[in-house]
Amino acid sequence: xxxxYRFGLPRLLVFFVASICWTASxxxxxxxxxxxxxxxxxxxxxxxxxxxTGTWSxxxxxxxxxxxxxxxxxxxxxxxxxxxxxxxSLSSECMRxxxxxxxxxxxxxxxxxxxxxxxxxxxxxxLDASGNIxxxxxLMNGSATGRCETEDGKGQLARR
Length: 160
Prior knowledge:
It contains one helix and eight strands; from the N terminus they run αββββββββ. The chain is an alpha+beta fold. The chain has an eight-stranded antiparallel β-barrel with strand order 1-2-3-4-5-6-7-8. The longest helix has 27 residues, at about 10-35.
């Protein structure tokens, strides 16, 4: 008496040979891609995490003639929930200091905040390869106290 199997020996043999051929062709195709670097997809190298905590200081120069440059020192610490905050002291005609929030994306840094009177300061910078020098531009609005209107300029901060 002949038994009927759903997948008889001939079908099972065909399936087995087909899977070996498929595996071999997939492996060979993978080897070709690896052997030919022009066919490999470009992958961006991950950027190292940059730690900006610490003391930064420098001089910022106004874009407006007749306005004196000022020095600034910012102490950046890691606060609750890993947020970066900074306290600044500066010798400007428009502000004396500000509490700042710090953010970093790659090598771009933004320090932004205000003083107790409501005067605002934003510093946008780019870190050099060492991570210790920041080329920066700033925007200050000291009109809340009437000391200054909008002030802007450029400078450099260095980690101490």
